[in-house]
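User: Please predict structures.

Assistant: First:
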Amino acid sequence: MTLPIIPYNPTLKERARELRKNMTPGEQKLWHHLKGKRMLGYDFDRQRPIDQFIVDFYCKLLQLAIEIDGASHDSEEAQQYDCERQLRLEGLGVHFLRFRESEVLNETPQVLEAIALWISTHESTRT
């Protein structure tokens, strides 16, 4: 199966590098479970530029973005931006899973189970 190439703005590379160096505690915790193909053998990148945006985690093979939303996403403006951003990326074929920072920190097994369930129900259409 040939995956579509989703272009990205190269000026985001430096910002993505900064974000990788300054991950939130929730991002750090989830990354521990995603890196090194630990999630059902799938390769995830962290702080991945896609189009004009950077997503927290991305699996190219599944076209799956995982976002961890902390308090900075609580305002009405931030929620509107997140919605518009997600709609634009979904229009490019990207799928989304969103979790609250507190969920990742306090309910890690349930978050990992939700990710594994999504993958198991979608992987046959991707591989």
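Second:
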Amino acid sequence: MQENSFLNELLRHLSYKLQTCTTASRVNLLASVEERFASYLLTTRLQNEFGKEILTPHISEIASLIGTTPRHLNRVIHKLMVMNVVIKEKKRLVISDWARLEEISNGIRYE
């Protein structure tokens, strides 16, 4: 009986991993880095309720998740700063214009 519980949990976990990897691959193939980063920020806000502040000490992990390099992601962040969509304060980003971020994402989500 306990063996079935373990196998069911393992199957649930593997199914979730497959679904998230498939979604990330689809988004990463079809969208620009700007769209992907905007989508990441919006998805993170909705799922984890970070609100307007998102900690950014691991830019390389975010870059890897959205399928780009940390260097290119920094360029995109700088562009969003020039557009007044985000404000960078030390090691965090503060989103100043969620509506504009929504437009940039073109409705794409990592969900």
